[in-house]
Design brief:
The complex is a heterodimer of chains A (about 325) and B (about 425). With about 325 residues, chain A is an all-alpha fold. Helix content of chain A is about 80%, strand content about 0%. Chain A has 15 helices and no strands. Chain B is mostly helical and about 425 residues long. Chain B folds into 3 domains: about 1-45 and about 200-415, MetI-like (MetI-like fold, Orthogonal Bundle); about 55-70 and about 150-185, no CATH class; about 75-150, no CATH class. Chain B has helices at about 1-10, 10-35, 55-60, 75-80, 85-95, 110-120, 130-145, 200-235, 235-250, 255-265, 275-300, 305-310, 315-350, 365-375, 385-410; strands spanning about 50-55, 65-70, 155-160, 165-170, 175, 185-190. Chain B has a two-stranded antiparallel ribbon with strand order 1-6. Chain B has a two-stranded antiparallel sheet with strand order 2-5. The chains are: A mainly alpha (about 325), B mainly alpha (about 425). At the A-B interface, helix 1, helix 6, helix 7, helix 8 and helix 12 of A face helix 9, helix 10, helix 13 and helix 15 of B.
Chain lengths: ~325, ~425
């Protein structure tokens, strides 16, 4: 038990250091971009003015409002202090909305799309991979190259192909937005149906890509396990295949579970391009709009959220791994003894 | 070495992947050479023309090799001008506003329908309750069918200084010309993009650029990963701790986010193809470093390494001659995977608008970006993006296949029995 505390304590400290460095990168990199983002806002506000000293006053006020007149380290400290109070700044392009408000709106859509898609894709992919590994003959020869082809296609490629076939040629499903353009969010059945219809294409493109990747991984792991010594020995001992298969797939699942946890961690930033293609109102589209608009509070905010979620997911994976994988427990007990 | 090469080329997966890769590479090298246009040359002054053969109209009209053929040209002209729904709309108009009794006209009898249309349709009358868009639609339909039934032929008049001059040629309604007799024609195998550039030439040169970009990025990533991995694995101690710390740092911070941030902070003027390749390489090395390090750690206590150390060889000598050859196969596989993922990363970056900003060459990601920003898919211009996606998928598929094939050769337990 003492070994466990030391193991987890070290990991926690390490993650905290990583978080600080990630924070600094998130803050400083966008601000290295040349150009003055406040100029746009200020030019809107000073549109009719002719007195140059007045214009200067307005620009100065905007700069103070956004804290841009201070040195970079000072800005960073203010950023960190505000962050711990839950304030990530005000967006430039969608002034006066705050970054936290924009992100909290979009993140719901992304999670609602990615979470079911990743889980469904993972389940389907692992089942198909396991079947392919078990029945080596016909199914494997056909399914294998097909899944390889699908998994080497970029995620947005699948999105565009599905968009093309189902949205534009067959016209079965709508091609953009989270819900119909002519609808306002109400608690009506029509709205819900519209959301479900707009959900289909992004969902299935995500599922197909995940299935492709997962099935290949599961298949290789299963083949590796099925050729392991203990399987052969058990077979020679006369133990029924059904019992052995249970053990085999439990061992093969281990990396897959880590993979699932990691996918869930990267799910927020995982499919930025596909979201942009479907104009789905998630965090990917928000990030892209922020990048094109040069809106660095929003960029920093989005990338920060994505990084923090990935860090948390990695930490959870390491903790889970320590619990699930008996070898880690054994190593800890050895080192503590 | 020779034996290994022979084994590699016997592996079916590797051979298939290699063949696909070589085909794409040779298409990328040779097609732009034999094509009569340069990749980014804007030929058509129109958006997204479909694939096909395009012939010069003046040559066709003035050709001296016209042949009169006894074919029914009218029905083809009519079906080109009017679709089935157009005919239905005509009947609706005639029955509502033309004073024709319901049921007397049907879409099957084209001649009667068109006669009635010519007699009754008046583009200038305004009807209560008809939307402007509907009335304009009928006017457009009218201009399309204005001349389809006649078999009188047309007269072509020459233009001099912008003014019409007396007739020079007459063209009968049933004159045909062989396509080979027309001197000016152009064949677009894959149509054009929104700037009027030939898609096939552009795409093949883009494949070449993307492959080059992938190669640079892969080499950068593998070089950094290899050096750091070797150092960390072999030397150990404090260097190992520092390098491992940095590697874990960069593994956990999502590489793609870092890529976006770095590409964003490089201003657009410096963001050429090679700069983007180096940036992609700089964010992709941690994975290589980690695996090289674990391999080197298991190798470092081998007998021949200890012997080398005892013989007094320097650190560099031991690493290069005794450790490196054993991980060479692994490094080659890692390089191939890095190239494949670099091409995909570039495509994603370009679609976000953060890719290489260049007007001299195209990359596959840039072509996708142009297709997207000019609404190619809403306009139905499948030729502007589907072939590009197919080539991205084929390139990374062939690289992944080659990698799997190599993996099976070097790790016999992965071979299919």
């Amino acid at each position: 038990m003492k070994g466990y505390v030391k193991y987890y304590g070290q990991k926690l400290i390490w993650y905290l250091i990583t978080f600080v460095i990630a924070l600094m990168l998130n803050f400083f990199l966008p601000r290295l971009m040349p150009g003055d983002p406040v100029a746009n806002l200020a030019s809107d506000a000073t549109a009719g003015m002719t007195d140059s000293s007045q214009i200067q006053l307005v620009v100065q006020q905007y700069k103070e409002r956004f804290g841009l007149d201070k040195s970079y380290p000072e800005q960073f400290l203010i950023f960190v202090r505000n962050m711990f109070q839950g304030d990530l700044g005000v967006s430039f392009t969608q002034y006066p909305r705050t970054v936290v408000e924009i992100i909290s709106e979009s993140i719901g859509w992304t999670i609602a799309l990615q979470l079911p898609a990743i889980i469904v894709g993972w389940l389907l992919g692992n089942v198909l991979g396991a079947i392919a590994a078990y029945i080596r003959k016909g199914f494997d020869k056909v399914a294998m190259p097909f899944f390889m082809l699908i998994s080497s296609m970029p995620a947005f490629g699948m999105a565009i192909i599905l968009l093309w076939i189902f949205g534009l040629t067959l016209k079965w499903l709508p091609i953009a937005g989270g819900y119909g353009f002519d609808l306002l969010p109400t608690a009506s059945w029509e709205f819900v149906v519209s959301i479900i219809r707009h959900y289909q294409l992004p969902f299935w493109s995500m599922v197909l890509i995940t299935v492709g990747g997962q099935s290949i991984g599961m298949r290789s792991m299963s083949i590796y396990e099925l050729n392991a010594d203990y399987v052969k020995y058990s077979r020679f001992l006369g133990i029924k295949d059904r019992k052995i298969v249970g053990y085999v797939f439990r061992n093969a699942m281990l990396p897959q579970i880590t993979g699932l946890a990691l996918s869930l961690g990267t799910m927020v930033g995982g499919n930025i391009v596909a979201e942009m293609i479907f104009s789905y109102p998630g965090i990917g589209t928000t990030l892209v709009q922020a990048v094109t608009g040069g809106d660095y509070p929003l960029i920093s905010g989005c990338t920060l959220i994505i990084t923090v979620l990935v860090l948390i997911a990695n930490l959870v994976v390491e903790i889970l791994y320590g619990i699930i994988d008996p070898r880690v427990k054994a190593a800890q007990q050895e080192s503590a003894a | 070495m020779k034996h290994q090469l022979k084994q590699i080329f016997h592996s079916p997966k590797f051979v298939v992947g290699f063949v696909i890769f070589v085909v794409m590479l040779s298409a990328a090298i040779f097609y732009p050479l034999i094509s009569s246009v340069s990749p980014l040359q804007s030929i058509a002054k129109a958006n997204f023309i479909p694939p096909g053969r395009y012939i010069n109209v003046q040559d066709a009209v003035e050709s001296t090799n016209k042949v009169l053929m006894e074919l029914d040209v009218v029905s083809e002209r009519v079906s080109a001008a009017l679709s089935a729904s157009d005919k239905e709309k005509m009947i609706v108009w005639l029955e509502e506003y033309g004073g024709v009794e319901a049921g007397t006209l049907s879409a099957d009898n084209i001649e009667e329908l068109l006669e009635a249309w010519y007699a009754k349709y008046d583009p200038n009358t305004r009807f209560e309750g008809m939307l402007t868009s509907t009335s304009k639609e009928y006017q457009r339909m009218n201009t399309r069918v204005s001349n389809v039934l006649s078999q009188n032929g047309v007269i072509i008049a020459e233009m001099v200084d912008g003014e019409l001059v007396k007739s020079s040629t007459t063209v009968r309604s049933q004159d045909f010309v062989g396509v080979k007799d027309i001197p000016n024609q152009f064949y677009f195998p894959l149509g054009t993009d929104n700037f009027g550039r030939d898609v096939l030439t552009q795409m093949t040169s883009a494949i070449g650029t993307s492959l080059r970009l992938g190669l640079v990025a892969g080499l950068v990533a593998t070089a950094i990963g290899l050096t750091l991995g070797l150092l960390a694995g072999y030397v150990g101690g404090i260097i190992d701790n520092v390098i491992t710390f940095i590697t874990n740092l960069f593994t956990v911070i999502p590489g793609f986010v870092l890529l976006i941030l770095i590409s964003y902070s490089i201003s657009q003027t410096t963001r050429g193809v090679n700069v983007v390749a180096v940036v992609i390489g700089l964010t992709a090395w941690p994975w290589t470093c980690r695996s090289v390090r674990s391999q080197v750690i298991s190798l470092r206590n081998r007998d021949h390494v200890n012997l080398s150390k005892l013989s007094g060889h320097s650190l560099v000598h031991v690493v290069v001659f005794d450790v490196l050859p054993y991980i060479a196969s692994y490094v080659v596989m890692a390089l191939i995977l890095q190239i494949s993922s670099a091409i995909l990363a570039e495509a994603q970056l370009s679609m976000l608008g953060l890719g290489p900003s260049t007007t001299k060459v195209a990359t596959l990601g840039l072509m996708m970006n142009w297709a997207q920003t000019s609404s190619a898919w809403q306009l139905g211009a499948w030729w502007a993006f589907l072939p590009v996606i197919a080539s991205i998928a084929l390139v990374s598929f062939s690289l992944n296949l080659m990698n799997t094939g190599l993996d099976q050769v070097f790790n016999p337990q992965l071979r299919d029995s």
